[in-house]
Each structure stands twice: as structure tokens, then as C-alpha cells.
Amino acid sequence: MTTYLSKEEEKQRNFAAICSLVVGIALMLLKFWAYNMTKSEAIRSDALESIINIITAALAIFVIYYAAKPVDTDHPYGHGKVEYFSAAFEGGLISFAAFYIIIEAIRALLGEYELHKLDQGLVIVFAAGLINLLLGLFLIKRGKKNKSTALKASGYHVISDFVTSAGVVTGLIIVHFTGYIWLDAVTAILVGLYLAYTGFKLVRESVGGLLDAEDIELLKELTQVFQKCMIPGIIQLHHVKIIRSGYYHHIDAHIVLPEFWDVALVHEKVNEFEKQVIKHYNFQGEMNFHMDPCRRVYCQFCDLENCSIRQEKFVKKMQVNISQLRSKEEPEEFK
Fold first, then answer.
1. Domain spans of the chain?
2. Rounded CA separation 150/323 (Å)
């Protein structure tokens, strides 16, 4: 079963990405204005991160367009994995900016410099931070709604920008009341360390998506969907694997079916089950099944009526659980 993003969903993705770019440019200009006014290393660290926001927002516009392209002969699983490349690139840029900020802050700490018009600079950075918070929440919401890894990554990055702005404001308030100018450079170093952590985390998660690392939360969600969509004759599911390509997922699974069903009936029932699963799943996609014939020990868990080979009465349906889906084989007691 193959479905794609609707025109409305694509429109919402593009609108969110363009908003991120426009707001990012405006906030970067504000922060550099505040830096030129105050000569604060902490504010400069915040402004430098805004450059990364602009680069990644511009990249996100292309990535969202490319990821929305449908499956073709060259890309049978779609183009969605480009979003993981985008997120990894963004994480790398954040980490690079973090190290640059730390180095420059250390140089400033070892030298001498003065701060100017700190009150006005604080107001500007505080206002920019609040705007970033609202923008980040907006991007994350749109990213989750439209299953966009790129939008969610940008949203979390913008939220991290808000956190750095809050840290800068806090540090400069302390500088203002204590008069210890060296705390400005220390604040910049702390901001850099936080950004380094954020960038590393983003790269690690993106690499996991590129390598299709097992996602336990996704399997838990799929467990509930399978349980809800079970139809008579489908006895058990195991060895479930998910290939994530942005909003589009390819799901492989082993499925236990009555051994006397013919090919036509298997095709009909499996198609019915797949449609129900994709309908209730939070992502679009397709499923591919390896068929396993039932064994007599399954009789008490099989609710199929008028079974000609039944040896035990039906007792209850087998509950779908995580350990069952992760298992590469049928449970030992049913072999």
C-alpha cells in the first residue's frame, strides 16, 4: 500500500520551513546588533548560533521538497532519508559553532575587554529568545503533524537557541549586578559546551535513522496498532523490522496464518490487515510479510471459525507485545 503526502501537508511543511528562515534572519540581525552595542562574548556566541539557524532553515526548504518526492524506480523506498542527512549536517554545524565559540571565549577570558550598554543588549537578546521559543514549538508541532524529521530537528535546534539565549541573559544579569566582566566569557563557554552536546545528540539520532537503528518507541506504537487491527486467522506476528524513510515507513514482519489457507485467501486477508494497520499507524508506508504456517499448539489462541484441523478449543487471542515483535523466531513453546 503506497500513499504520499497530500498537497496540503506539503504546503504546511514548506510554510513552516520558510517561516523558520525569515524569522532566523531577523533574529540573527537583532543579535549581532546587540553584540555590536555591548561587545559581549556571550551575546556573540548566541548570534553565531543564529547563523547556523539560517543555514539549516535554508537547507530544510530544499530537503522538505526533495523528501516529498514519491517513490520511483531509482528510489523504491522514497526520498525521505534525505531528512536524516539534513539533521546530521545541522548537528555537525552546531558542534563546529560550539567549538569556535569556546575557543573565542577562552581568548577573551585571557585578554581584556569592556562591556557597553548591557541593559539594552539584554532586552534585545531576551526578546529574541522568546521569539525563538515560539518558533521552535511551532516547528516541532508542524514536524510531528507532517512526519518531518527535518522540521523537528530545526525545531529542537531553535529551542536550544532559546536555551542559550536564556543562559546568556542569566549570565549577563549576574555580570550587571556583580561587575565581574570575566563571567561574560564564562557564560559564552558554557553556551558553547551546551551547543556541543546538542550537536552531538542530533548527529547520533540522525545516524541512527540512516542506519535504521531499532526504535523501541516506534515498536511500542506498532504493537498497539497490531493489537487493534487483528482479524480472525492472523494468529501471531514476530521478527518485525522497520525501514524509516522520513514520513514513509517500510515494515517487514513474519506472520503466522492457518496452514490450509490457499494463496488467494492469504492475499485477501493479509491485504485487509495491512490496510487497517497503515490506516491507524501514525506514518504512511507499506508492509511486507513472510508467511509462517500455524501449528496445532496455536489452536487455543486461534479464533478462526469452522477450522477443519482444530485440536483444541479457542481460549483467547494471543496478546501482541514488544518481546514478541522483536523475536526473530516463533516462541519456543510453539515450535
1. 7-210, 216-334
2. 31
Same fold across 7-210 and 216-334:
no
Buried-exposed string 144-178: b where 16+ CB fall within 10 A, e elsewhere: eebbbbbbbbbbbbbbbbbbbbbbbbebbeebeee
Task: Give dist(CA 282, CA 147) in Å, integer.
Answer: 8
The CATH code belonging to domain 7-210 is 1.20.1510.10
Q: What distance in Å separates the CA atoms of residue 329 and residue 335, rounded to the nearest whole number?
A: 9
Q: What is the pLDDT of residues 46-76, one digit of tens each?
A: 888 788 878 877 887 787 778 777 777 888 7
Cβ atoms of 80 and 246 within 8 Å: the answer is yes
Using the 8-state DSSP alphabet, how is residue 77 labeled? T
Which amino acid is present at 39? Answer: K
Sign of the four-CA dihedral 32, 38, 41, 43: negative
Q: What is the pTM of this model?
A: 0.67
- Residue 251 parent element (H or E): strand 248-257
Strand order in the sheet with 248-257: 236-245, 248-257, 284-293
* Averaged pLDDT score across all residues of the chain: 83
Q: Are 122 and 188 in contact (CB under 8 A)?
A: no
SS3 238: strand
Q: 216-334 is classed in which CATH architecture?
A: 2-Layer Sandwich (3.30)
Q: What's the half-sphere exposure (Cβ side, CA atoms, 13 Å) at 148?
A: 35
